[in-house]
Amino acid sequence: MTTAQNEEPSYFGHRARLRERFLFDDGASMPDYEVLELLLMYAIPRRDVKPLAKKLIKEFGDLNGVLHASTQLLREKCQISDNIITLLRLVDVMILRSTSAAFADNHRHIFTAWVDFENYCRAQFGHKNVEEMWCFYFNSQREYLGEKHLSTGSVKSSSVPIPAMMKEAIDKKAQMLVLAHNHPSGICRPSPEDILITEKVMQAAEVMDLEVFDHIIVTTYDTFSFRANGYINNGKISYEECTSVNFTSKSAIKAK
Predict the structure, then answer these.
(1) φ and ψ of 129, to 5 deg
(2) How far apart are CA 57 and CA 255, in angstroms?
(3) Beta strand pairing call for 211-218 and 223-225
(4) How many CA atoms lie within 13 A of 133 on its CB side?
(5) pLDDT band for position 107 (50/70/90)?
(6) Which among 246, 112, 114, 236 is positioned nearest to 180, based on CA atoms?
(7) What is the SS3 assignment for 212?
(8) Which stretch of DSSP H or E encloses residue 4?
(9) What ranges do the domains of the chain cover?
(10) Rounded distance, CA 56 to CA 60, Å?
(11) Domain 110-242 has CATH 2.40.440.10
(12) Model confidence pLDDT, tens digit, residues 113-145
């Protein structure tokens, strides 16, 4: 066997150094493309993956964009294999499940896990390029009971199935609801239609002696809480009151 055949490719040493840097501070000092490069190494063991990592970050903006990019776009724009797509999807699913577990699987009072709940909503649908409306259900101890995906597409009062939402509450024996939907525009503030939907849901919930604790709007990186911003106060909502509220991007929930 020749010396050339015994020599390892130059990127082998780079991979070892990359792993060492990651383990030193959990990747805190590494740019996005290097973190992605390290991940891709496990899907492509015998090729320099730095160019691909840089291409993915350039195409989709950051790690979050890469993880949430559709399979079709990953194939069309970067011509990557199913092995790589599976790895990216696996990481995305693991993040979603671990975020959900932080508030859903350990019987935590939702008020003590509100940040985890917001993070879950952003991970679940904050990045979507179409609007999705969801309802989350809680018992009298404010513990999570489940969720229901209500609609996809432009969120309008006519498109939100309020009877189905209320039936789900009965089936789950829920006492409290939280509405949530995303704004693909990235503008994290409610529209008049969002306010109207919230009013209608609250009216239906009042008849059934259910509490609508909040309605949150999410984008990829931001959250807006109706309650934290004065839109829901003592179980009532008023558009006139809402229009005078100073909008803030991060919610600061105060429990009743």
Answers:
(1) -95, 5
(2) 40
(3) antiparallel
(4) 23
(5) low
(6) 114
(7) strand
(8) helix 3-6
(9) 9-95, 110-242
(10) 6
(11) no
(12) 888 899 899 988 998 889 999 999 999 988 999
